[in-house]
Amino acid sequence: MKVSDIESAARAVLPKFYSEDLHPESWRVFSSCGTEIETYKGRTTGFVRSPGVLVGKKKADALKRTFGETQPEIGLGDRDTDIPFVTLCKEVFILCFNIDRVI
């Protein structure tokens, strides 16, 4: 897929659904350590750029790089691999989903 097609879709969709309610500082932090897709000659390859998908210890390391010694106020997680990340935060919320139950 062309990178320009992805960028075009992101500009059209993301502001409408996500960024209206997003604090600029939250976006700065999120974008500074977000997972990126590798590209070659203007097309995506499907590979993930280093440091890879931010899961487990990698996610905690990204938080430390971004915040340094400052402890974030809130950490949200939804699986066991988020524990290294959320334990670095002052307040922790683990979201539980029951996929066996449909409402």
* Shape type: globular
Q: What share of residues is helical?
A: 25-40%
- Kindly give the count of domains: 2
Mean of residue pLDDT? 82
Largest sheet properties: 2 strands, antiparallel
Tell me the strand percentage band. Answer: 15-25%
Instruction: Please compute the radius of gyration using only Cα atoms.
Output: 16 Å
Number of H- or I-type helical stretches: 4
Strand order of the largest sheet: 1-2
Topology readout:
Elements: H1 3-17, H2 24-32, E1 37-40, E2 43-48, H3 57-67, E3 74-77, H4 83-86, E4 91-94
GO molecular function: glycerol-3-phosphate 2-O-acyltransferase activity; phosphatase activity
Family: Belongs to the GPAT/DAPAT family.
GO biological process, one term: cutin biosynthetic process
